[in-house]
Amino acid sequence: MNSSPTYDDPGVYRTLLESTKAIPWKIDWASMRFTYIGPQIETLLGWRQDSWQTVNDWADRIHESDRQKTVDFCVAQSMQGVDHEADYQALTRDGDLVWIRDVVHVKRHPDGSVDCLVGFMFDITERKAAEDKILQLQKELETMSYRDALTGIANRRMFDRILDVEWSKARACGEPLSLVMLDIDFFKQYNDSFGHPQGDLCLQQVAGLLDDTASRTRDLCARLGGEEFVMLLPATNAEAAHAIAARFARLLARAAIPHRNSRVDDVLTVSIGVGTIVPGGQDAPEAFIELVDRRLYRAKGEGRKRIVASGD
């Protein structure tokens, strides 16, 4: 005679449930009391199986940062008879945190009223850690995509993006927006003289000095490419923008980076174009950039090592 248990034996189901890592539970809706929770809960969270008496025990063991929103969500979904899932941080008896995914099924009476809630708790701590790592890496990659790999300051992509934002703000507020564009004088000759590794170091030094000059929160310094750099200066009038450009030129002169093949000095110098605008409805940032770029090339054409801040 076959003495093996039949599949309608409650003991079979309990054995199956309690041999899995998922933690089964059941709550009576009328009394809001646990009628069952798997013994695995003690292994996972440290709380004794018989300490899970009411839904308040469940709520109190959710970390305070997740507690209210989790309880509100689960209650609302349950009242509507909607099966649902909730991720939250649970407190262990020792005060540590474990990420839980609660999968909830709402069982109803024939008249449609809620009878009980049954569900499973899953430990998703490792999954959450992996997801957080992926998000962190994605943010790092995004940050890298907006940074110049050599100098560490913003790149052209970041400059274009921030310019659009600051342009719109300046137009809405009627504020001046200034741009300082600069190009290292005779940089090809610098590379030919000192070599590309030293040329890279030179670009990094210039970027560092720019970063020191554009020191306000909303100021942005960026490398546009090659030896060309820019400072975007929100809420900065023409006089202040010229002063900032001149301050950078003084910092560069003080740094005294040797340049024996320069035709204008024995140290590194730059040519600078400066422009200021209060954007109107008909103005375009591209035209403003072109204006400042023309001033930069006028500075180069007029002998380099100078600032041009007026004219077309």
From TrEMBL:
Residues 84-136 form the PAC domain. Signal peptide: none annotated. Its EC number is 2.7.7.65. GO terms for biological process: cell adhesion involved in single-species biofilm formation; negative regulation of bacterial-type flagellum-dependent cell motility. SUPFAM superfamilies: Nucleotide cyclase, PYP-like sensor domain (PAS domain). It catalyses: 2 GTP = 3',3'-c-di-GMP + 2 diphosphate. InterPro entries: Diguanylate_Cyclase, GGDEF_dom, Nucleotide_cyclase, PAC, PAS, PAS-assoc_C, PAS-like_dom_sf, PAS_fold_3. Residues 175-312 form the GGDEF domain. GO terms for molecular function: diguanylate cyclase activity. GO terms for cellular component: plasma membrane. It comes from the Bacteria. Pfam families: GGDEF, PAS_3. CDD domains: GGDEF, PAS. NCBIfam families: GGDEF (TIGR00254), sensory_box (TIGR00229). This is diguanylate cyclase. The lineage of its organism: Bacteria, Pseudomonadati, Pseudomonadota, Betaproteobacteria, Burkholderiales.
